[in-house]
Amino acid sequence: MYQKLIIVGNLTRDVEIRYLPSGQAVAKSGIATSRKWKDQSGQQREETLFIDITIWGRSAEIANQYLHKGSKVLIEGRLTLEQWTDQSGQKRSKHSVTVESLKMLDGKPQGGQVGGQVHSHGGQVAQPQYQQPAPQQQYRQPPAQPQPNQQAALPEVDVDEDSIPF
After folding, report:
1. Domains defined along the chain, listed by start
2. How far is CA 37 from the centre of its chain?
3. 89-125 tens-digit pLDDT
């Protein structure tokens, strides 16, 4: 089976980063996205969804550094079911998105760099490439060719999701 979600929206809260005992970074935030349509009577309608997201590794650190509440992003990822027991002993669960690729769609961040894309596949994360953002209707970009002044990709990290404390 294969699943892939592509979502464009704005962060609903600042990125919250934590580090596992292994040193692996994990960040949590939320994204709001909406769609507009006309109903049968011709009235304009709008639906907004609020989705929790989880970002891993170097992507989490970059998101924490450059993104904030209201930042516009394009994320690609997979749906995840989170389960836990609350303080009263009730079993709880929710769906969230585990981010595998993140693209910053805002103009210039505070550092003066423009746009950026970060990939995380199977624990491998490529360094961000700051460039002019692509038009919003273009969701896929060909893989970037490494430039002489870019840093090499980080080594692959094996993460056991069962060891995550939240």
Report:
1. 5-163 (2.40.50.140)
2. 26
3. 999 999 999 999 999 998 655 544 444 555 554 443 3
